Amino acid sequence: xxxxxxxxxxxxxxxxxxxxxxxxxxxxxxxxxxxxxxxxxxxxxxxxxxxxxxxxxxxxxxxxxxxxxxxxxxxxxxxxxxxxxxxxxxxxxxxxxxxxxxxxxxxxxxxxxxxxxxx
Length: 119
What we know:
With about 120 residues, this protein is mostly beta strands. It has no helices and eleven strands. The chain has strands at about 1-5, 10-15, 20-25, 35-40, 45-50, 60, 70-75, 80-85, 90-100, 110, 115-119. Strands 2, 4, 5, 6, 9, 10 and 11 form a seven-stranded mixed β-sheet that branches.
C-alpha cells in the first residue's frame, strides 16, 4: 500500500508560480515512478509529468514543457512539480500518482490539490 498526500496548491495570478509537493508513505518510495495529473472542470483527467525512480528520465505534456519541472527527493519520499509561467488554462485539481507495477497503470493516487490561475 502507498499513501500519497499533495500540498502546495492555491490561487495565483497568470504568470505566477507554484510548487506542488506529494509525500508518500508505505512501500519504498525510491523504487517506483511518480506522476502528476490534472483534472479540469468539464475535461478529462490528463497526464502532466512523470519521473522515474532514479530521476534519470522525466516526461512532460507538450503544453507544460519549459514551464513545469518535476523532481523528487527519495530521502524525503517526496515528488515535486514546480510550475512557472502559469496560465488560466492550467487551472485544475492536480493529483500525484504512483506507478508501482510493470503494468503501466498508475495504481495509487493522492486526494488532489486545487490550482487556480486568475487572468
